Amino acid sequence: MMIHIDVSSVLRQTLSCELYSNLVTRPTGAAVRTQIEALLDDERDRSLTVIDFSHVGMIDFSCADEVVAKLLLRSVAEERAVREVYFLFRGVTDDHWDSIESVLERHGLALVMETDDGCRVVGTVNDRERRAWQTVYDLGRAVPADVAPAIGTPQDDAARVLDGLHRRRLLMRLEDGYVAVGGLSDRRA
Amino acid sequence: MTSVITVPPSLDDQSFEQVVEQLAAVPADAKLLVDARHTRWASPYGLTALLTLGQTRQERPTLAVPEAEETAGYWARAGFFKHAEELFELNGSVPRARAGESSVLLEITPVVKSEDVHEVVGRIQQQAQKILTTELHYDPKATVGFAMTLSEICQNIIEHAGRGGWVGVQAYTYRKRLGKRVVVVAVCDAGRGFRQSLESAPGRVLDDRWDDGKALEDAVVRGVSRFRDPGRGQGIAGVRRFISRWDAKLSVRSGTARIALIPSWDEDVPLQENLAPFPGAQVQVTLAERVSGGPR
């Protein structure tokens, strides 16, 4: 199930004001996140949500912490593990990136960002994890045996890397292998 | 008996200390006359700090407004008098604010609630982009960082001060030191200040060295927050990054101390302690005209 959330629309609903397009202040961020979480509450088992920043002017550090970091932290939290919530970030520009990058670093988080050239994983991931993710993304669907040569490790290690990326909600685990977040949306057209 | 506080001819973050020193000798409930008749110039810091002074008094003080028409006219355009009349008895000729060519990027605006920060950021963006890129030769990317910095500093009032404050932004030529154009942001409040805010953190252990200076070091340099949430303190960290990237200046005064992140073009003191006490926090960010647009 894929859901699309236009953050700018959520912001305007939250503030009850059409004039503001900037995600600023921690209370605003908390309110926007709460609204997004409420939209996701109806979803079961596994869902992919596109968080769309296309119409957001700028986002400050406090708001990025509330909206991006806390949303990701909750999606990877153990108590939510029964429900798999994945996020794909769309419309992130240079105007948003400084604050988003900063909060990802602070919390050791990573996310999948959709750009004109496709999707990529950004934030706190090591080189091996990045290559593993990219391999799965390029292949569309992959198992440890596909990824091991690309990252130069035995299959057992590749399996651990893929499992780690799955637990961080950067890869989805299906019955017949892993799919990258954004890999599905990229091929939806 | 009325105590008279003389406002210096040029009122900025440095000379406001003269005001605070005079104020330290006056009991909080004493009748006060703030004499700005001979003041000819004021920075946004001077004006917003003067408003916070009015906030601190138990009895409504009197403000003798600048006699120079040009000065009083500027104070009116900066939005000073419309807030001052709520805090002071105004004595003298108060001009009406007239629209026109002005160096005021953001007139003095109250910051009380989250929506005020939205308003401030929304209003500043276009103006700031024009001034920063065309007059101060900054890369357009700096405009977003500037708005973020403004947002985070204003939020400090909402999150920590416990009462409202003011923000003002102005562009002017900084003749005293640089002879260059600068954009100055001032955000001042008379709330509880950094020390008291950090002291309210649950389980906070205070050592022998704990004072206003240490509180400022913790908050500004180390990003310590009174909240346990590990995501806290990122705002000030982001401000520090912006200041460093664009060789700008940040100074924060709170209680009896003042800390400054000093750029290459300035010769301020990193930490001043044992200043005359003044409540709340007074923050100033200065961006100076650049030779080239990129970050340092």
Structure summarized in a few sentences:
With 189 residues, chain A is α/β, with parallel strands linked by helices.
Number of helices of chain A: 8
What is the chain-wise order of helices and strands of chain B? EEHEEHEHHEEHHEEHHHEEEE
Q: Between the first and last Cα atoms of chain B, what is the distance in angstroms?
A: 54 Å
By secondary-structure content and strand pairing, the structural class of chain A works out as alpha/beta
The end-to-end span of chain A amounts to 15 Å
Helix content of chain B: 25-40%
- Would you report the number of β strands of chain A? 7
What is the chains' assembly state?
A: heterodimer
Main pleated-sheet profile of chain B: 7 strands, antiparallel
Order of strands in the sheet with the most strands of chain A?
1-2-3-4-5
Tally of extended strands of chain B?
13
- Hey, roughly how much beta strand do the residues of chain A contain? 15-25%
Low-pLDDT residue spans of chain B: none
The largest β sheet of chain A comes out as: 5 strands, mixed
What fraction of the residues of chain B are assigned to beta strands by DSSP?
Answer: 15-25%
Class by SSE composition of chain B: alpha/beta
